[in-house]
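Reopening this ticket.

The earlier resolution said the output was attached, but the attachment link was broken on my side. Pasting everything inline this time so it's all in one place.
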Amino acid sequence: MDYEKIEKSARLRDRVRKTITYFFLTVWGILVLFPFYWMVLTSVKSYGAYNSEWIPKLYTLSPTLQNYVDAFTQVPLGGYFLNTIVFTVITTGLMLIVTVLAAYGFARLNFKGKDLVFALFLSLMMIPTELVVITNFVTITDLNLRNTFTGLILPSVTSVFYIYLLKETFSQVPDELYYAAKVDGTSDLKYLFKVMIPICRPTVVTITILKVIECWNSYVWPRLITDDQSYFLVSNGIQEIRENGFGRENIPAMMAAVVAISLPLIVLFLIFRKKIMEGVSRGGVKG
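Inline output:
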């Protein structure tokens, strides 16, 4: 047998396979990134230059930041940002408290009916979101909490999925650590904060980031529960700009507002993407 020809043929097949793979990955990457490139490109074109283009150009020779100035001065985009930050910080903080305590209870504490209660918790994930939105809207309206931060925040402080994810991570911590802590007279709360959370920090960081992204992108509930611009978030604020601001006329300024809203989440994901993957993978494997 001519081993040199066999090896050369194998290298050729491997090179062809890699070429085809990278080609399709490149095409896919262009398709994914092009809309964002077009959004950024439009945001730095002047109003006159944009309207004078009969055939849209893939570049601009005279970029401008005036659209970003208009986005923050002609409409209350800064106020929408502030409302969103307040909503995100408070909601994420309360969610962490509820999620950590609930996950610890299901993972470490023993009480009658624990498995049944946890199964009922998981079954809530099967309920369509639309049904939950309707019941939450009726409840918040009956409590006269529309157009308030309380009404915005309350329905978002719990997540069955995050409780499940963190519970599975807590369950991977050896029981021997818990028994040793109990022998030393450590309380459950102290064991949770001194041992469990430091060990499971990647998953805690992951659910925190995912919740921040969820709050920032929240649209249906804020749109439903608020009709006062003083409580608009960036999600429904951008819709207000499109309908009643310059959104239908000044497209470059509209794109500047969208870029400004999207940029924080993109930066957040790029910084913490490895921790997100690590936390999800740890929560999905029970050892």
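Reporter confirms the inline version is readable. DSSP finds 14 helices and no strands in the chain. The first helix runs from residue 3 to 43.
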